[in-house]
Design goal:
The chain is mainly α and 89 residues long. It has a single domain, classed as 3 helical TM bundles of succinate and fumarate reductases, CATH 1.20.1300.10. The protein has three helices and no strands.
Length: 89
């Protein structure tokens, strides 16, 4: 049963990754300020999930893994804040 839940969670993460990539693409390609502002949040979520998956797969040691994931969250929240402010200006 646990493997089934892990497979469902992995499938959900994969789907969110693809969705956020598709949502961020028009804002980046068209260089439209409004679309770029709308692309900030999906782009930060995409990077956050991607880096989180890399850390979970390749960083060993529970404390280092937890600290790395916390750092990624803090950096992505700060990046989202900066990008949204810059897009408004």
């Amino acid at each position: 049963m646990l493997q089934f839940l892990q497979i469902r969670e992995a499938s959900f993460i994969w789907q969110v990754q693809r969705l956020t990539a598709c949502l961020a693409l028009p804002g980046i390609l068209l260089l439209n300020p409004v679309l770029l502002a709308c692309a900030c949040l999906p782009l930060c979520i995409h990077v956050w999930i991607g880096l989180g998956e890399i850390i979970e797969d390749y960083v060993h040691g529970h404390a280092l893994k937890a600290f790395s994931l916390l750092c990624v969250r803090c950096v992505m929240l700060k990046m989202a804040k900066i990008l949204c402010v810059l897009c408004i200006l």
